[in-house]
Design brief:
With 435 residues, the chain is α/β, with parallel strands linked by helices. The chain is built from 12 helices and 16 strands.
Length: 435
């Protein structure tokens, strides 16, 4: 039996349902499932918060005896392996469903094709590929972590009418209106982590949480690219680190020599993940602060990510090699941050191709890059942005503005325009790479 418009209508509903728990199912994907009998939905569910139970078992339990002879619509191929819970394919067989319609096959080698095979061997009719493009979009974070060993990266930029994203030395500058800002809060709520550079963290002193009433608990992990441990202890990020996690990505050059026999950071030791960082740090009040994010980007970084490190601005990284802050001072900063609940991840902040897999090993499947022109360029030039959300506002910044790293006329090759949304006086254009 081929996929019909009737099937697509129910799959579209399952895909919408799957978005309810985006960013809230840990390392598991947020899957939607409908059980339909005689054209009526008798069971529905989305992967539970934290990742378990899975959508299929919940929807089947709701349908009960009505599941026998019914059709199950599932946005991702049902699992076929025994993990912390029995396989969902087995549950579908046990409840006696007659047909399963799937949007996306699972790239996880433990599942890929096996769930479908298990169902067919049990005499259940299976059709895959229903609204696959839409299904892959809803599962983009999971699919990216499975196939590319890194989080799905969204770059968000709010650009003024004169092409600026802020004003030098002015801290946070309101560019978009309330409708667009509400949309950004919704984006944060469905994302695992949000990232800014140290320049933005110091100049703007952002909170980076979800401020929509009722969604505060869905705030993402906050990540700061902070090579020399300069984030102030008085910053909002540090002061709230015990409420919403904060990770600072420090240069391997500030890894404490006393931490291992060779004095090497964890990412350079064989068999040790660069994510095994510890916590700690303190801002040197005498260290200079640049506008933007404090990165001097090389112009020859291509889409494949340059193997050479991208050098920080002079004075931005007072590591031992530059003769800046002493190891004892660095240890003091680390200890102060650790006491405040901030985690330090020792992984070159200027190599996103190394950082992103390190974040993936921590269960981070989606990352929102939200702060600073130079941080934006870092990810763009490394070819590691999957989606661009470009907000364009009628506001004019004028003299002293910080130029946007891109606008609607110079979107990098490989991106396609996914849609436009008007939010009050602001325009949101979304661009995506193929998964």
């Amino acid at each position: 039996m081929s996929i019909t418009p009737h099937d697509e209508r129910f799959m579209a509903a399952a895909i919408r349902l799957s978005r309810w728990h985006l960013g809230r199912t840990a390392t598991n994907p947020s899957v939607g499932c409908l059980i339909v009998r005689d054209g009526v939905i008798v069971g529905r569910a989305v992967t539970a918060l934290g990742g378990r139970p899975h959508a299929e078992t919940q929807a089947l339990a709701e349908a009960g005896a009505l599941a026998r002879g019914a059709t199950a619509y599932v946005t991702l191929e049902p699992c076929s392996h025994h993990g912390r819970t029995p396989p969902c394919a087995e549950a579908l067989i046990a409840y006696g469903v007659a047909r399963v319609v799937i949007s996306v096959t699972d790239p996880d080698p433990r599942v890929s094709g096996r769930g479908i095979a298990m169902l067919r061997e049990a005499g259940i009719e299976v059709d895959a590929g229903a609204l696959e493009v839409e299904g892959r979009h809803s599962l983009a974070s999971y699919l990216t972590r499975q196939t590319k060993n890194r989080p799905y990266v969204t770059l968000k930029l709010a650009v003024s009418a004169d092409g600026m994203i802020g004003r030098k030395g002015a801290g946070q500058v309101a560019i978009t209106g309330p409708e667009a800002r509400a949309q950004v809060q919704a984006l944060r709520a469905e994302t695992d982590a949000i990232l800014v550079g140290i320049g933005t963290a110091i100049t703007d002193d952002p909170l980076l949480t979800v401020r929509t009433p009722g969604l505060e608990s869905q705030s993402p992990i906050r990540i700061v690219l902070d090579p020399s441990l300069a984030l102030p202890l008085t910053s909002k990020l540090v002061e709230t680190a015990r409420e919403v996690p904060v990770i600072v990505v420090a240069s391997e050059e500030v890894w404490p020599l006393s931490s291992n026999a060779e004095g090497l950071p964890p990412s350079t030791l064989p068999g040790i993940s660069p994510t095994g960082g510890e916590i700690g740090k303190r801002r040197d009040p005498n260290s200079p602060v640049s506008d933007g994010d404090g990165f001097a980007l090389r112009q020859d970084v291509g889409q494949g990510a340059n193997p050479d490190p991208i050098s920080p601005l002079v004075g931005e990284m007072p590591g031992r090699a530059e003769g800046g802050a002493s190891p004892a001072d660095m240890d003091s900063r680390r200890a102060a941050l650790e006491a405040a609940g901030v985690e330090v991840l020792y992984c070159n902040p200027y190599h996103p191709e190394v950082l992103l897999p390190a974040l993936a090993t921590r269960g981070i499947s989606s990352l929102l890059v939200e702060g600073g022109a130079k941080t934006a360029r870092l990810f763009l030039e490394a070819g590691l942005v999957d989606r661009i959300q470009l907000y364009q506002a009628p506001v004019v910044i004028g003299e002293g503005g910080i130029e946007s790293p891109l606008d609607a006329t110079d979107i990098p090759s490989g991106f396609s325009h996914a849609g436009t949304l008007m939010l009050g006086e602001d325009r949101l254009d979304e661009y995506e790479r193929g998964l």
